[in-house]
Design goal:
- The structure is a single chain.
- The chain has 7 helices and 33 strands.
- With 457 residues, it is of the alpha+beta class.
Length: 457
């Protein structure tokens, strides 16, 4: 069954790995004189938010219009924090919230801290959500990787892996969440596989001369890259085992996170005062561009999920945002572009990896083509509308399955998710359904009955 699942997964991947052009870069926006080094910076999955962390333990979050919507400073001795956005943009996890070992869960709708996780005993070094949004993994200087699962709107620890000899810097999920990989400062790499009992050990090895500072899966493949002072190394799943296929030493010494572009064609690292961009081919990884804009060490470089922006940051107290060319969006961003509009939280949550792959596999290729020179603007617009309608119909079918909605008597019944509160003066019950909150006018007597039987409503 595992081999069948792998075959289906790869068959549905629509992005072909072909040689890419050199990336075009144009400076778009800059944050400077921030008072300390920048530990991390990047966009949320739907680019509705942008965040960065500063070395004095400050977090800043901005909206799409570049207005700051959240700011927080914990204990400066905890140094720069780390963060991760959930795939549906409902939440943001922030490590080193008030101290060095706690994690704040921030609800992005109102920027409220809804939970603080404090199971680690030393510095939080990395956070990452699974691609289906149900799990959060944290790695730490305490030599532990902890997997947290969302249960009844709260994160609960479900797996702890403490078989390491040194600091854990990073971890990464494969695109379908089948695998999770992490590595420690002594060069050990641990690959975990998802089972009915959670994640379990799949493979462990130590091939490095130096410790693993970064590890990241290539989008849409069972292939990951590790980074250390030795350079970059690529591993692929071959006959149900990850094997080393190639490496890069020259100009690829890594002490900070490594990031793939959303299409998997490019890889970016910070290397001294430079951000280096590599082209990732099937048989080789080689540098194609260098960003010399920073005046001190570059700590990282990230891509937006839609492939439109590139972010560099580092020790010179700067964050620079670049517009980029020749980078394809992620599969999810491609589907979002077909829908042509802002998605609700329920729609974003429904766009998990399996739904995205299903929509891509069922898409009419004639509708997804770019505008033809012999096609009028009205003809192209009509084609885009048909594409949007078909995509929305497929997404709605998936939402009905996920949320238990069903058609009856010419309408659609949507089950309640929760009762929030009742206002007896206004006789309005605030409820939640499909990730949306609304007020329903209802008399007091009926409201009392609803409270006891709301799960059936």
């Amino acid at each position: 069954m595992r081999q069948l699942s792998s075959a289906v997964f790869f068959a549905l991947i629509t992005t072909c790995f072909v040689p890419a052009q050199e990336m075009g870069l144009k400076e778009s926006k800059e944050f400077s004189n921030l008072g300390d080094y920048v530990k991390q910076a990047g966009f949320s999955p739907y680019r509705n938010f942008f965040a960065f962390t500063i070395g004095d333990n400050t977090l800043r979050v901005y909206d799409r219009d570049w207005e700051q919507v959240f700011g927080h400073q914990g204990n400066p001795k905890a140094l720069g924090g780390v963060f991760a956005f959930s795939p549906d943009e409902k939440q943001m996890a922030y490590g080193r919230y008030k101290g060095f070992n706690d994690i704040a869960i921030i609800r992005l709708a109102d920027m409220k801290v809804t939970q603080v996780l404090s199971r680690h005993t030393n510095y939080i070094n990395h956070l990452e959500f699974s691609n289906d949004g149900n799990l959060l993994v944290s790695t730490s200087t305490d030599k532990q990787a902890i997997i947290w699962e969302m249960k009844q709107e709260k994160f609960t620890p479900v797996n702890t892996f403490d078989e390491f000899e040194s600091t854990l810097y990073e971890s990464s999920f494969s695109s379908d969440d089948r695998f999770l990989v992490t590595g420690d400062a002594r060069g050990h790499v641990l690959v975990l596989e998802r089972t009915n009992r959670g994640y379990e050990r799949f493979q462990k090895f130590q091939y490095r001369k130096y410790g693993v500072h970064s590890v990241t899966f290539r989008p849409g493949s069972y292939e990951f890259v590790t980074g250390s002072r030795y350079g970059l190394r690529r591993y692929r799943l071959v006959n149900e085992e990850f094997v080393l296929t190639d490496s890069v030493k020259k100009g690829a010494a890594v002490e900070f996170p490594v990031h793939f572009s959303p299409d998997g064609q490019f890889l970016a690292i910070g290397n001294h005062h430079t951000a280096v961009i590599f082209n990732v081919g099937e048989d080789s990884i080689h540098p194609i561009d260098f960003v010399y804009r920073h005046m001190d060490n570059v700590f990282g470089a990230t891509f937006s999920d839609d492939g439109r922006f590139f972010v560099t940051f580092g020790n010179d107290q700067q964050v620079i945002i670049w517009e980029i060319d020749h980078v394809k969006p992620s599969d999810r961003s491609m589907v979002v572009s077909w829908l042509k509009g802002d998605l609700s939280l329920a729609q974003r949550r429904a766009l998990d990896p399996s739904t995205v792959l299903g929509i891509l596999a069922a898409a009419d290729s004639d509708l997804t083509l770019p505008m033809d020179e012999f096609e009028t603007s009205s003809e192209y617009s009509a084609r885009q509308e048909r594409l949007a309608d078909r995509t929305l119909a497929m997404l709605q079918q998936e939402m009905e399955k996920q949320y238990g909605a069903r058609s009856r008597s010419g309408g659609v019944e949507i089950p309640l998710q929760a009762l929030i509160r009742y206002n007896a003066d206004l006789k309005i019950y605030k409820i939640r359904f499909m990730e949306t909150e609304a007020g329903v006018e209802i008399p007091v007597a009926e409201a009392k009955k609803l409270k006891t039987k709301w799960k059936e409503a």
